[in-house]
DNA sequence: AAAAAAC
């Protein structure tokens, strides 16, 4: 447990003691990040270009596109420079965002196809939106201030549709601005704050945005707050704590917009602590995930609680498999379907490759070898389970890789939040994570994704690698595959091919295994996976056992709220208490 | 197809 805590608290802290030179450099020159050496060789103690956050935001990627080969490994040698000195982190970010507007070439324009009755015409500019629709000028002002200049494909098509109060199924690749596509119209239609009693007496929640993970909900909330600046809307990121305040009806009535994961919302509904009868807009972000078997029931329960006859529904995702689309379409009323680019195809901006590692044991040496050479931090590494995330991160730390972080849903909320903010600050060089990070998360600096464990679906693959190559930037994605992954290799290889990456010919020549065969091998693979589940780290079985024991103790404690004595986890319960 | 995530 201790090791687990140490680890999940952050590689950065760990490194302070063990990699002094790195950290000194890092801390000392943080504000001068823009002047960092061009070398990306993090482990040598040079300041890594993770602060490329800024470089990216600042520089026009147009230059890069022309001058750089798309093999990601070459990129580090030819970083664009950031011209000026900047003083504080925050200013850096802000100025960078604004500077980005100047010479930012528009995002690559994808083909857009729409289907539906009376599809509203798209707009080319945000200006055009104002001319055609009655959008609060403050909102447009905030959009400009946040650095948005021209609407992306999904924005120029999706926003008018939503502004005309039509239902929408939107499919647009990762990192192409889906969040703004629904936030702008929803907030535009929000009207006066519920708290101002004259306009909407007792109106309460009027918009609802659902996302599959806490981290994503949090990120959406941040975007929302940016757009809401200067308005007095009450925009709530649903959590245990906020849910507890809803027992007071006066509190709920003042809420204008809720961003939440489904189950949290269902819990409040069932407790009778929430009315959604005045909700006019429901958005499902990462819609295919939200319509997965595990989420579907919860989502339907939430939607059923939104009884207003004019409720508008919209679903957004980068992927929408046929079955999910069917479910989605059946929930929508006279829907319009917008597809940007090719469905289920990643961005060509992401240079993808497949790396053969014979078996699970060979992955770690391969990764360590990779990380011992120059690379572009931060790197996001995906594994298939929580214990594997923990133990891989630990192995990396033990092996001397600096600034390793770990994020999975088995960690406490605080640990998760800390990990995300380290990532946002550029303090994580290597982030090991599970599927929890696969969707929606927008870390502008991430240019390398490594699938340490083979993704379990095409959708998973597309979303994982879509953590890089965002907003027109380039990215690099490496996927390890073992013998066990063979049955699924060709499917993924086809995805690479379709999005312009190259695949070794022998992979393409693989026979497509029959269904039976695939099933059999799948079984082997699963057995193997169970076997491997704890194998990256040495003491992992012990850690896992401790974690399980701790969570059992916590549960036992919840039922018997009196006995507070024997908890090993310092802030497992203390903070939330039972105030409701 | 299966794990992860949701609480």
From TrEMBL:
The keyword Iron-sulfur does not apply. The keyword ATP-binding applies. Its EC number is 3.6.4.13. It is found in: Nucleus. Residues 33-42 have a biased composition (Low complexity). Residues 537-547 have a biased composition (Basic and acidic residues). InterPro entries: DDX52/Rok1_DEADc, DEAD/DEAH_box_helicase_dom, DEAD_box_RNA_helicase, Helic_SF1/SF2_ATP-bd_DinG/Rad3, Helicase_ATP-bd, Helicase_C-like, P-loop_NTPase, RNA-helicase_DEAD-box_CS. CDD domains: DEADc_DDX52, SF2_C_DEAD. Residues 363-511 form the Helicase C-terminal domain. One of its GO terms (biological process) is maturation of SSU-rRNA. Transmembrane segments: none annotated. Gene3D superfamilies: P-loop containing nucleotide triphosphate hydrolases (3.40.50.300). GO terms for molecular function: ATP binding; hydrolase activity; RNA binding; RNA helicase activity. It is an enzyme of class 3 (hydrolase). It holds the Pfam family Helicase_C. It comes from the Eukaryota. Residues 128-156 form the DEAD-box RNA helicase Q domain. A motif (Q motif) lies at residues 128-156. One of its GO terms (cellular component) is cytosol. Residues 84-105 have a biased composition (Acidic residues). Residues 118-429, 159-338 form the Helicase ATP-binding domain. Keywords: ATP-binding, Helicase, Hydrolase, Nucleotide-binding, Nucleus, Ribosome biogenesis, RNA-binding. It catalyses: ATP + H2O = ADP + phosphate + H(+). Belongs to the DEAD box helicase family. DDX52/ROK1 subfamily. PANTHER family: ATP-DEPENDENT RNA HELICASE RHLE-RELATED, RNA HELICASE. This is RNA helicase. It comes from Lentinus brumalis. The lineage of its organism: Eukaryota, Fungi, Dikarya, Basidiomycota, Agaricomycotina.
